[in-house]
């Protein structure tokens, strides 16, 4: 790739903690409107975060998965919808840098536009009929050859960050007799690309995960970045599985930590007339916070161990998926405990715990979903030779 360069986007080098504190002041408004917090993304750009996982030789910071989970988990304490958009951008650049398939020209294009123009990227994979590709099947989104042109047609749902993205790596099938499947790089500002505003969910409302529609979008040859026969994808990329699983786990753990901190402030501030002192003085709430902290302490231990193994290249994808399942279920349980303990204030839109509760439940719909993670771990256990005592 190219020589080192200085990003043209002005940087202020704000810490993720400082960014999260500001994001938290805007999160409720964006949750109500359902609009992406573009000012948060602008601040991420100004802080130089778009280059977090771009190689130092190419002008980025050369961060790895540990840096991704640290930043994503911290940003999620302020606004998990912004954190998710950034997580997907980080992971895509990690995967692009590690790929042996991507043409150098395409790799350079997404890298330089990220550093100089603040361009965001995400993978666009899910379809109405196909669902998530992690469960198998050929995508209906196709590329065809027409008079020497490569043309893209189809649609992708749940496209996180849609209106804020410049690039999409779109999961497609070819029109060949033996179809190949994989990624094409699409400039989402190109003619023939449009967005249907279809994201109307209970939680994570401001991710802008709308539907992209591609109608006769002409692609350059360099856009065909990674197409393989279906069976060549069956093993899947271990870095893809691990990175996605642990980034999602870190995000929803961040939501639970934000809920915990708000709960503590509420228990100190709430002084019922009949009690005459803060709820924080009651033993039952001491026990409650102990339960919550035990769950979050377990999460920290799981994440630390997972990241150590991932950095050593010894972490199976089945275990990464299982870690995502356990961490996110712990996060959900931690928030549920707070909701159950304080009653009506927990479900009032006047308080952020209600939003944290809706957001954290979305962990269950992120791949890998619980049944997939558990079944894969069970199969692995049952195909390994039993350990003799």
Characterization of the model:
By secondary structure, this protein is of the alpha+beta class. The chain folds into 3 domains: 16-120, Butyryl-Coa Dehydrogenase, subunit A, domain 1 (Orthogonal Bundle), CATH 1.10.540; 133-229, Butyryl-CoA Dehydrogenase, subunit A, domain 2; 238-383, Up-down Bundle (Butyryl-CoA Dehydrogenase, subunit A, domain 3). The protein is 48% helix and 13% strand. It contains 10 helices and 8 strands. The protein has helices at 16-33, 38-46, 65-78, 80-98, 104-117, 238-269, 283-311, 317-342, 352-361, 370-383, and strands spanning 121-124, 142-146, 149-159, 167-174, 181-187, 193-196, 210-219, 226-228. Strands 1, 2, 3, 4, 5, 6, 7 and 8 form an 8-stranded mixed beta sheet that branches. The radius of gyration is 22 Å and the shape is globular. It starts with 15 loop residues before the first helix and ends in a 6-residue tail after the last helix. Residues 19-91 form the Acyl-CoA dehydrogenase/oxidase N-terminal domain. Residues 129-217 form the Acyl-CoA oxidase/dehydrogenase middle domain. Residues 247-367 form the Acyl-CoA dehydrogenase C-terminal domain.
Features:
389 residues; alpha+beta; Butyryl-Coa Dehydrogenase, subunit A, domain 1; Butyryl-CoA Dehydrogenase, subunit A, domain 2; Butyryl-CoA Dehydrogenase, subunit A, domain 3; eight-stranded mixed β-sheet; 10 helices; 8 strands; globular
């Amino acid at each position: 790739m190219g020589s080192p360069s200085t990003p043209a986007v002005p940087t202020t080098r704000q810490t993720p903690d400082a960014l999260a504190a500001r994001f938290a002041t805007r999160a409720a408004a964006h949750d109500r409107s359902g609009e992406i917090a573009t000012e948060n993304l602008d601040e991420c750009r100004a802080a130089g975060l778009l280059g977090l996982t771009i190689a130092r030789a190419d002008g980025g910071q050369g961060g790895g998965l540990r840096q991704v989970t640290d930043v994503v988990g911290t940003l999620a304490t302020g606004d998990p919808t912004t954190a998710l958009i950034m997580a997907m951008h980080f992971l895509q650049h990690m995967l692009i840098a590690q790929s042996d398939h991507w043409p150098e020209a395409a790799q350079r294009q997404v890298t330089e536009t990220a550093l100089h123009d603040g361009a965001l990227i995400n993978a666009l994979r899910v379809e109405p009929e196909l669902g998530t590709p992690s469960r198998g099947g050929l995508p209906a989104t196709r590329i065809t050859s027409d008079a020497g042109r490569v043309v893209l047609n189809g649609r992708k749902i749940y496209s996180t960050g849609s209106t804020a993205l410049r690039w999409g790596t779109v999961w497609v099938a070819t029109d060949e007799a033996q179809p190949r499947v994989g990624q094409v790089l699409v400039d989402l500002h190109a003619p023939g690309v449009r967005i249907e505003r279809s994201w109307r969910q209970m939680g994570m409302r401001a991710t802008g995960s709308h539907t992209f529609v591609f109608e006769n979008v002409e692609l350059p040859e360099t856009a065909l970045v990674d197409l393989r026969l279906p069976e060549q994808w069956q093993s899947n990329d271990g870095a893809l599985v691990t990175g996605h699983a642990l980034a999602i786990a870190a995000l929803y753990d961040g939501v639970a930590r934000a809920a915990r901190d708000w709960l503590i402030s509420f228990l100190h501030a709430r002084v019922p007339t009949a009690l005459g002192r803060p709820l924080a003085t009651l033993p039952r709430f001491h026990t409650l916070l102990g339960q919550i902290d035990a769950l979050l302490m377990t999460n920290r231990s799981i994440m630390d161990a997972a990241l150590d193994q991932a950095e050593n290249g010894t972490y199976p994808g089945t275990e990464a998926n299982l870690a995502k399942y356990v961490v996110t279920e712990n996060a959900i349980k931690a928030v549920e405990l707070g909701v159950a303990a304080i009653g009506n204030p927990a479900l009032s839109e006047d308080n952020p715990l209600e939003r944290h509760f809706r957001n954290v439940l979305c962990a269950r719909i992120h791949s890998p979903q619980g049944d997939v993670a558990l079944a894969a771990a069970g199969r692995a256990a049952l195909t390994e030779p039993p350990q003799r005592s």
